[in-house]
Amino acid sequence: ELDGIVQEIAGGGATPLVVCSGAAVLGAIELRDIVKADIKSRFAELRAMGIRTVMVTGDNPLTAAAIAAEAGVDDYLAEAKPETKLARIREYQNEGYMVAMTGDGTNDSPALAQADVGLCMASGTQAAREASNMVDMDSNPTKLLEIVQIGKQLLMTRGALTTFSVAN
């Protein structure tokens, strides 16, 4: 019975926490991350710009699959340890991709530091904030689209300035 409850919680995108007293199981608590209402449309806009979104999480596969579907990411990897996150970032970079990473935990710090662009929420741990290039002071991951748009504008402006300097 408990296994069924745990599977149901995980399959619904939450993390099950079994509560015990000694060897006696008292019940299960459902811990749920709230997926921002407009994040799915933001990921769709990023996809339209040619940007692939991948969720790399320490969550179990059932929870990760449910959250990935709700958020609308292109791919996901579950049960990822810090070294797995770091290795995945390096794999993408070795394939020639520019990699941006968002994270908020100490376990995200190595990957945030390795990424070409590391973004941490202000609510993140000190280690994650220090490893990042940017800190989102509003802790609002839906700002990703604006960050990408500003970054592209900066690259275009930098390119125009470089062209102007070479031409003179």
From TrEMBL:
<dbReference type="Pfam" id="PF00702">
    <property type="entry name" value="Hydrolase"/>
</dbReference>
<dbReference type="GO" id="GO:0016020">
    <property type="term" value="C:membrane"/>
</dbReference>
<dbReference type="InterPro" id="IPR036412">
    <property type="entry name" value="HAD-like_sf"/>
</dbReference>
<dbReference type="InterPro" id="IPR006391">
    <property type="entry name" value="P-type_ATPase_bsu_IA"/>
</dbReference>
<keyword id="KW-0812">Transmembrane</keyword>
<dbReference type="InterPro" id="IPR001757">
    <property type="entry name" value="P_typ_ATPase"/>
</dbReference>
<keyword id="KW-0472">Membrane</keyword>
<dbReference type="InterPro" id="IPR023214">
    <property type="entry name" value="HAD_sf"/>
</dbReference>
<dbReference type="GO" id="GO:0016887">
    <property type="term" value="F:ATP hydrolysis activity"/>
</dbReference>
<protein>
    <submittedName>
        <fullName>HAD-IC family P-type ATPase</fullName>
    </submittedName>
</protein>
<dbReference type="GO" id="GO:0008556">
    <property type="term" value="F:P-type potassium transmembrane transporter activity"/>
</dbReference>
<keyword id="KW-1133">Transmembrane helix</keyword>
<dbReference type="GO" id="GO:0005524">
    <property type="term" value="F:ATP binding"/>
</dbReference>
<dbReference type="InterPro" id="IPR023299">
    <property type="entry name" value="ATPase_P-typ_cyto_dom_N"/>
</dbReference>
